[in-house]
Write a structure and sequence with these properties.
Layout (H helix, E strand, L loop, with lengths): L1 H29 L13 H10 L3 H12 L3 H12 L3 H13 L28 E7 L2 E7 L4 H12 L3 H10 L5 H11 L2
Antiparallel strand pairs: 1-2
Helix pairs in contact: 2-5, 3-4, 4-5, 6-7, 7-8
């Protein structure tokens, strides 16, 4: 009988440990979960703008290429190396940039209230390619009057339901017809 006492005691202790562990897990599951958003106390859009301002054009392009490819760790590493911010700040910045895409804005003097580069397209030294696809349908617009910022505004207009304004802006900044622009914009709507 004494030989069974020790194994029964061990079994009782293990059972009590399992019950306590299950109770602790049950309490933790009932507690409200915090959002996975960065706990920086800043507006995520403001954080994204500030983060984009720290990057040069090549770093900005490479960072968004990594985000688009789903390589979050590589994007965080790139941002960390480019800015020297800490890992947590880099993670938060890349998360904000992914959630709130920012166009590249070179460091230039502030524009006056009457100056809007949407009204008078300028020509850039490079050719910009914008691609939209839905299902098997893919459309491409290539123009040296487009850049990330202008295309971002066109996408925002399209996604907010202002398709005609988006199509007009696209024709103003490229050499395509309004019909082709409408077809392109239709692929951007979601």
């Amino acid at each position: 009988m004494e030989s069974l006492l020790i194994p029964l005691l061990i079994l009782a202790l293990v059972g009590a440990g399992v019950l306590l562990g299950a109770r602790a897990l049950g309490r933790r599951d009932k507690q409200p979960r915090r959002e996975a958003a960065p706990q920086t106390g800043r507006d995520p859009v403001e954080l994204a703008r500030a983060a984009a301002a720290k990057l040069n054009q090549e770093q900005h392009r490479r960072l968004y290429a990594l985000i688009a490819q789903g390589q979050a760790m590589a994007a965080i590493k790139l941002y960390f190396e480019a800015t020297g911010d800490g890992l947590r700040a880099s993670r938060d910045a890349v998360g904000a940039l992914a959630a709130h895409p920012q166009p590249f804005r070179p460091e230039t003097p502030e524009q006056g209230p009457g100056e809007d580069d949407d009204d008078a397209p300028q020509r850039f030294a490079y050719r910009y390619r914008a691609i939209a696809s839905k299902g098997d349908v893919t459309r491409e617009v290539s123009s040296n009057m487009l850049n990330d910022e202008i295309y971002g505004r066109i996408r925002t207009l399209a996604r907010s339901g202002q398709t005609e304004a988006a199509a007009e802006a696209l024709t103003r900044h490229s050499d395509i017809s309004i019909k082709q622009a409408r077809e392109f914009i239709a692929l951007l709507e979601d």
